[in-house]
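Let us work through a complete example step by step.
Step 1: write down the sequence.
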Amino acid sequence: MDKKVAKKTTIEINVGLNANNVPIEVEWKSTDNPKGKESQMSKAMLLSLFDKKDKETLKIDLWTYDMQVMEMDRFFYQTLRGLADTYYKATQNQELAMEMQKFVQYFGEKTEVIPKPE
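Step 2: predict the structure and record it as tokens.
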């Protein structure tokens, strides 16, 4: 695998806070966003970075005051589904990825993001 940097991209996240430091606006843009270079509005974000030196995960989890529980359920369902897929792509551990997908299915049904099978 080639470890030489061939290109760099920028991701910018701006968070608007109210007087009580509660997020009321989250917007982001990226130089490589296929939807264009204009800012995109968001209601929530989860950012995890794995520190190379300390081997620790650094997290930033934000959501706006107007994010509804139903939207948060959908956001987590889709995030968990994506994490299970990413885990499989990164490790090729099909057994554990399938177990993660089972939990995602359970979560989706319990939160009614997806219908329960009949």
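Step 3: interpret the result. The radius of gyration is 17 Å.
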